[in-house]
Amino acid sequence: MKTKNLIKQIKAFFSGDKTMTEVTRTPNYTDEMVDSMVADYQDNPTKDTVAKLASEFNKTTRSIVAKLVREGVYVAAPRVTKTGAPVVRKSELVAQIQDQLGIVLPSLEKASKQDLEILASAITSEVER
Predict the structure, then answer these.
(1) Does residue 97 lie in a domain region?
(2) pLDDT in tens, 14-30
(3) Do 71 and 95 have their domain in common?
(4) Tally of CB atoms within 10 A around 106
(5) How far is 73 from 55, CA to CA, in rounded Å?
(6) Of 81 and 110, which is predicted with more confidence?
């Protein structure tokens, strides 16, 4: 019995007939909504604009951000530390140290970030002398 239903479904699929189980999706955003969102965000690319758009269209901020990303207009805020300084990865510090010394130190990434920062600043100040 299951085989007959499967064969019917396969025939219907390849013949282009719609089955009752197929559901047509309605888009979350109309073209007018997308155009309005993109225009508003490009005029003022801030979190406040995203929040305003979310309340205007009765959507979540994540949904608005996802749509703006898909449209290719969303610009993420740069990541910063608690002090407001830009985030620097350990791998970037290691690369900077290796470039300044002119040698490759594979196990240097195992050092703590604080030690790497101290070493990088010491090397930079030594090179500047």
Answers:
(1) yes
(2) 776 665 566 677 788 88
(3) no
(4) 8
(5) 19
(6) 110
